[in-house]
UniProtKB/TrEMBL annotation:
UniProt source species: Eptatretus burgeri (Inshore hagfish)
Protein name: Bcl-2 Bcl-2 homology region 1-3 domain-containing protein
Compartments where located: Membrane
Similarity annotation: Belongs to the Bcl-2 family.
Source organism phylogeny: Eukaryota, Metazoa, Chordata, Craniata, Vertebrata
The keyword Transmembrane is assigned to this record: yes
């Protein structure tokens, strides 16, 4: 019923989605939150400074909920499949931690992840998680400046590939409804398993070939 009510409000114009620029900025914020969560174990801080104008109160609330659900889902995925993102730089065939290498690897990964416009919330979370784990690798190898390159790259990928789908779903509130582990723990078992299968195929060594 909540889903139908939300869609009805959108259709009536009583609730409006953020514009494209704001949605991209929010995607970068969520990616930054995921990176902060990963880096917290190393004691490293990160501030995603490339933000657009501040969203409205309601958008802020929805974004805060989306961030919470994103991190809970990420924790569940890592708890079930702890080796999934181990040595993600090698699995993405990054030979050198440089801006060009990192950007090309993320774009290649996204091309495979969203092949033929197969976008789901699980795959969106997967994109953020790969970015976060790659950021952790960069910090571990003394290249923290590349974190901003990673976040900007995710913004470009989101704009080109994911944005239309997110708008069609009604925004981040749909991610909250779909992925909230606190409300649908049993149903998420299948979703987590499917996502792990997708990621396992993509991030295996030599699987994520760079597409120049």
């Amino acid at each position: 019923m909540e889903f139908l009510r939300h869609r009805a409000l959108v259709l009536r114009g009583l609730w409006t989605l953020p514009n494209d620029v704001q949605l991209v900025a929010q995607a970068k914020t969520l990616c930054g939150d995921c990176i902060k969560w990963r880096l917290s174990r190393t004691g490293t801080t990160f501030n995603a400074s490339s933000q657009s104008s501040a969203p409205s109160y309601k958008s802020s609330r929805i974004l805060a909920e989306a961030s919470c659900v994103l991190l809970l889902f990420a924790q569940e995925l890592e708890a079930m499949f702890p080796d999934l993102f181990h040595n993600v730089d090698r699995k993405l065939q990054i030979l050198a931690l440089a801006e060009l290498e990192v950007s090309e690897a993320l774009h290649a990964f996204a091309t495979l992840l969203f092949y033929e416009q197969q976008v789901t919330w699980g795959r969106v979370v997967a994109l953020f998680m790969v970015a976060a784990n790659l950021a952790e690798v960069c910090v571990a190898h003394g290249c923290p400046a590349l974190i901003h390159t990673i976040v900007d790259c995710i913004g470009v990928i989101f704009l080109k590939t994911v944005l239309p789908w997110v708008k069609a779903q009604g925004g981040w509130s749909d991610m909250v409804r779909t992925l909230d582990c606190r409300k649908r723990p049993i149903g998420l078992c299948w979703l987590l398993g499917s996502l792990a299968t997708i990621l396992g195929l993509i991030v295996l060594p030599h699987c994520a070939e760079k597409m120049y």
